[in-house]
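Whiteboard transcription, Tuesday session. T.W. wrote the structure tokens on the left side:
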């Protein structure tokens, strides 16, 4: 049990736990905003199209509600995609470039074969190297 608590503490301190919690809260709040936009602006427009001659919303109302839910999903997915894309771009910009690995081989100036970087004599042509 002690080891389990230690592992959980390390997980929570790493920052992933906090990032995930913030994402869940923001996702829920953002979903409510998109839902409100669809309910306030999009649904009245679509329902005015669906009202039949008697003033009631017919079977077309169910289709319109489904379309509103799909539009709500697409808006949410698009905005979250743009946020994640911007976050990844900012993260990439702050990342330090890695140094290229030191070479492990060099070319012999006499026979142009690949040799070890520490070699003082070429194993192919037996020339002495500087």
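and on the right, the sequence the group agreed on:
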């Amino acid at each position: 049990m002690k080891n389990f608590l230690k592992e959980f503490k390390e997980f929570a301190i790493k920052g992933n736990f906090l990032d995930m919690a913030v994402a869940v809260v923001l996702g829920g709040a953002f979903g409510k905003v998109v839902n409100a936009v669809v309910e306030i602006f999009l649904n009245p427009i679509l329902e005015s199209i669906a009202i039949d001659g008697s003033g009631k919303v017919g079977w077309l109302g169910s289709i319109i509600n489904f379309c509103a839910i799909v539009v709500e999903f697409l808006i949410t997915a698009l905005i979250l995609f743009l946020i994640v894309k911007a976050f990844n771009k900012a993260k990439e910009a702050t990342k330090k470039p890695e140094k290229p690995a030191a070479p492990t081989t060099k070319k012999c100036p006499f026979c142009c074969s690949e040799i070890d970087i520490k070699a003082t004599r070429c194993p192919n042509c037996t020339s002495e190297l500087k």
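Someone added at the bottom: The two ends are 62 Å apart (CA to CA).
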